Amino acid sequence: MQRKCLATISRGLAFVLPLVFVLCVQVAFAGKPLKLLAIGNSFSEDAIEQNLFELAAATGHQMVIGNMYIGGCSLERHWGNARKDKPDYNYRKIGIDGKMTRTANYTLDKALRDEQWDYVSLQQVSQLSGMYSSFQPHLDSLIAYVRARVPATTKLIWHVTWAYAQNSTHGGFANYDRNQDKMYRAIVEGAQRLKKENAQFSLFVPVGTAIQNARTSFVGDHLNRDGFHLDLVLGRYTAACTWFECLFGTKVFGNRYAPKGLDKAQKAVAQWAAHLAVELPFECSLIDIVDTTTKVSAGGLVEKK
Fold first, then answer.
1. What residue spans define the domains of the chain?
2. What confidence tens digit (pLDDT) does each residue in 164-182 have?
3. Minimal CA–CA distance to 212: which of 172, 180, 178, 250?
4. Spatial CA neighbour of 193 closest among 89, 282, 285
5. Which of 19, 109, 117, 284 is least enclosed, having the fewest CB within 10 Å?
6. Is the pTM value of this prediction over 0.85?
């Protein structure tokens, strides 16, 4: 069942939507930087390394964002690296000044002790993200490892990632019979099962649902740059908007920040896709945005008249 969001874009924006209880809400304390560390891969790179800091800053929030990056890294490999203390990571860190540093040959142990992290996020590699049987036993072991190295107040996040574009040529798409909807359903069903069976996670950030929501709009299935990684502008902005709402408990629509290259219509799609995902994290919502200043282009997202 899809939830419908109606919006009209002309000289200004007018939105009509019944407001419902927001499921994914955490509120940061004013004046205290929110510190987030992702143990991830290129999908965490897409989601939090750009736009999230700026969205927070636009509402007066400070952040420290860390990403322990290995491309295509699975939970199994993360746990193996942790167990052997392997310095296999590129540690990307955005400080409170908004500047990113990159440090090669980093260990998980060192990153977990680098800051008093408020949140640590975990995720499965994309091709296995909807295969719940692939999570264990590595996930429980990794959780125990993290818990032993962070403050008791640190909260764990499960990053609910996205399904591939329908035309993706990624080899792992075969796990879902090369069907986007099947992959999306598998991802959210896995997250629901994890939520039910593992009380360790305080937040589930439904980026996969936000991306699926955006695909129902005039944008269509154009949220990826290569069939699986997110588009550098709209795709990444949609992901960051989802993280922003979950972390700060603030509705993202109306946030003045948008990256260069994003027009008014696309910004509306991204913000509403994220907001509806936070409200309904495990089901796709229809976004019907009428845009009188742009038209859908066969070769891209939108084309100015």
1. 34-279
2. 999 999 999 999 999 999 9
3. 180
4. 282
5. 19
6. yes
